[in-house]
């Protein structure tokens, strides 16, 4: 593959990844997820990075599961937390997030479960189902 084609393809995939990542989830800003948690909502925090291949795999699984079961988006507040921007922030530190590609489900401030660097559809579905059960 020619370098120019490779760079064009890479740039296109990055833009697609960022656009698709934001679909159905709220980009995290300080206080937004915390307000939802303090209101007692069920929340899924997706700690990701645009350059992370594991994060991209998790995103594909989440998108497929949301398409299969629209109730997930109706009952769970999804937040994407940019690891490059918030990886050392208060939320990451409070939840002891070890790395990007971490999914955490919470009911209010109580953690229901987490997946670190896992991409199994069955595991992610189980986490979403557990979150749904608490909603």
UniProtKB/TrEMBL annotation:
UniProt entry tagged with the keyword Signal: yes
Pfam families: Thioredoxin
PROSITE patterns: THIOREDOXIN_2
All copies of domain Thioredoxin, residue ranges: 7-133
Signal peptide interval: 1-24
Alphabetically ordered keywords of this record: Signal
Entry protein name: Thioredoxin
């Amino acid at each position: 593959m020619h370098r120019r084609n490779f760079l064009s393809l890479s740039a296109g995939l990055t833009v697609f990844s960022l656009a698709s990542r934001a679909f159905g989830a709220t980009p995290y800003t300080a206080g937004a997820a915390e307000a939802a948690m303090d209101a007692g909502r069920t929340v899924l925090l997706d700690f990701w990075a645009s350059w992370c291949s594991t994060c991209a795999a998790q995103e594909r699984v989440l998108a497929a599961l949301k398409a299969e079961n629209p109730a997930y988006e109706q009952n769970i507040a999804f937040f994407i937390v940019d690891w490059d921007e918030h990886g050392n922030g208060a939320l990451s530190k409070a939840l002891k997030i070890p790395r990007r590609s971490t999914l955490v489900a919470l009911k209010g401030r109580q953690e229901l479960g987490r997946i670190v660097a896992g991409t199994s559809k069955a595991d992610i579905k189980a986490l979403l189902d557990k979150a749904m059960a608490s909603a």
